Structures are given as C-alpha cells and as structure tokens.
C-alpha cells in the first residue's frame, strides 16, 4: 500500500513538473516574441503620420489605415506562429495544406474584386490554382529549392499573391469593358460571331492591362528595387550571384503563373457572360 501511494505521489509530482515545464517554456517563447515586436510597434509611428496627413487633407481614410495596420499586425503574428510550427514538421501534407489555404484566400479576394462576375470566387480560385500549380510543379521538378516548407511556402506565396492580383483585375476589367461596349458585342453576335470572336478586343485589353504591371516590374527589376526573394537570400547569407540566379527563375515562373491564371479566367468567365444561344446575359452587365 505504501509502495502504491509512493508511486502515485511520484507520478503526480512528475506530471506537475512536466506541466510547469511546458508553461515555463511557453512563457519564455512568448517573452522573446513580445520583445522582438518592440521595433515593429515603434514603426507604427509612420502610420500615425499617415493618419494625421489623411485627417489634415480630409481624405477620410484614417479608420481604414488604422484597421489595415491592425489587421496586418494580427495576421502576420498568427501566420508567424503557424509557420514556426510548419517549418519544424517533415510532412509534405503541411506544405500542400498551406498552399491550398493560400489559393483559397486568394481566390476569395480576387473574386471580391470582380464581385459582379457570377461565380467569380470559384473562377478566380480555379484559375489561380491552375496557374500556380503548374509553375510550382516545374519548380519542384527542376529542384530549384529544397522541397521543404521553409523554401516552398514563401515561393508559393509570391506566385499565388501575384496571380491573385492579375486574375482579379482581368475578370473585373473584362466584365466592365463588355458592359461599356455591350452594343458592339451584341451587334457582332447578331452577325454570327461566337462569344470569343465578339469579345476578342475586350479580352485582349483586359489581359494587357492586368499583365502590364508584372511585365513592367520585370523590366525594371534590379534598377529600381531588389525583389523579395533575392533580398531574402542575400540577407540569409547567400552570395549575390546565387541570389540573382534563383531570382531570375522565380520571376520567370511568376510571369508564367500570372499569364496562365489570367488567360484561364477569361475562358471560365464566358459561361456566365453568355447564354447557350450565344446571347449576352444582360443581368450580369446591369450597372452597379
């Protein structure tokens, strides 16, 4: 009986010690995190300056500025903890889960930009998934980076982020251009043109406008600013020459992902723009 009581006491003591150790470890980690956030918080002084200027100029953007910086602070803090966990894992499933999460959020955001396009969020999500998965496949096959969360997730984030912007602009611009030139499109359809033929100019214009910023950034890279991937590699200790080589690969993939996503989005938009009889869905183009 005494032996049993001693064993139970020892087990209880061990459990308590383990609990205290976990609590102490967590608080230590949080302490380091909070200590590291002092400088980011100090940097919000410039945000306060922007808020003051907005108030003096009567722009009415003060609340939006404060909301955006608070939201960014919370989101980045949360994702920091999530990435801290994922980077310690050695499971491909976490990489795929993080990638699909980014695509889902990107599809929703791009769909919000083109909110008047029916099923816009689904169209944007599928387009972004197709464009980025294709480029990420080649990224893995060519072994540009080690297939680990530390490398793949940030690169995937750049691909998805740029594809999101391009896709959203393409869809919105295409719908707006067709609405503006609806009489021209309907005339072409009446003369026997297919939806593709009737909207070829609008599609071209939407693609050119959405892809131009990506191409312009590629033209001026290194002359105006150093891109994120290159900067991160250099700050991480890589040589500038090695960083440049990897950045060129990333930029090539980025142009490919953006182009595939934007072009695919135009094809996926058509079923909602036209009826089966090749007539415009007028309710889609009612002025907002």
TrEMBL record:
- A Gene Ontology CC term for this entry? plasma membrane
Q: What keywords would UniProt list here?
A: Membrane, Transmembrane, Transmembrane helix
A Pfam cross-reference name: UPF0014
Concerning InterPro entries, the annotation shows: UPF0014_fam
UniProt topology in membrane: Multi-pass membrane protein
Which is a GO BP term held by this UniProt record? response to aluminum ion
The portions of this protein that span the membrane are: 37-56, 68-87, 93-110, 122-145, 151-171, 220-238, 244-270
Question: Where can this protein be found?
Answer: Membrane
Q: Which domain of life is it from?
A: Eukaryota
Query: What family classification does the UniProt entry report for this protein?
Result: Belongs to the UPF0014 family.
Instruction: Return the protein name.
Output: Protein ALUMINUM SENSITIVE 3
Species, as recorded: Cannabis sativa (Hemp)
